[in-house]
Please model this.
Amino acid sequence: MTPVVAVVLAAGLDRLVAEPPTKLHPVAWLGRGIGTLDRAWRYPRFAGVVAALSVPLFVAAVAAGVVAVVAAASPVGGAVVAGLVCFVSTSRRMLVDEAWAVVAASEADLPAARERLRSLAGRDATDLSGGEVRSAAVESAAENLADGLVAPLAGFALLAPVSVAAGAAAAAAIKTVNTLDSIFGYRSEPMGWAPARLDDLIMWLPARVSACLLAVSGGKPGAVVRARRAAHEPSSPNSGWPMATLAAGLGVRLGKPGAYVLDGGPDLPTRADADRGITVVSRAGWLAFGLAAAGVIAAC
Model:
């Protein structure tokens, strides 16, 4: 039952701690390390392929090695270390707390809300209205549910019944792929092709699972069906699914000006709509933890 201990520990730490301090956060270290690869390579696409394949494998090997060494001495210790890896590879509370803060500021201090939105969404917020800021916060919460929680948690739950070291390796590798994509996965970035394509591949199923979790958590199971057409509006093959499902479930219009519109309703979200949407994301995150624990129990 050590994999269950790891999942419960990760969920408990998420609730109590949210995130480790930046100076102590392994993902922050990873981001700084990956940032050193951002240079003028002679063959940037080839460099991107090498990075996309080697960096996640290296991080997975380190995570698996540490967990395996500790588990060999103490199975409970191995479960604790695996839970720590799962915890730093996932994020729920920090995501929803930051989204709620942006939404609250969108009414009280719009310039501050635009500034704070940068922590959630990579878009120019200079001229966004309050409704557009709330839309961006809700969209980001839904999208990051998939890549920041469901994907690494699913990787852990699938392989942890084999060994907690394998589960930790899967969670760490998926988080690394997502980090590579967040740094290099842009059309303007010469190295970005391979990280973006690998992230698209890995996120295909978690994005759709996240859409289902959001529909169930919002009490609107039919929202996934209603979201099918709008889900293809964003250029990403995956991010549109959780965003469009949440838009349909809330009955509001979400979108990025000049890029896409997720037409779940006629109007942009009000403060109440946005708060309700972020609450749905939070519930979906807890549901993901619960399903991961149940899946591990069933497999064990």
Q: What stands out?
A: The longest strand covers residues 253-256. The beta strands are 253-256, 260-263. Residues 2-299 form one domain.
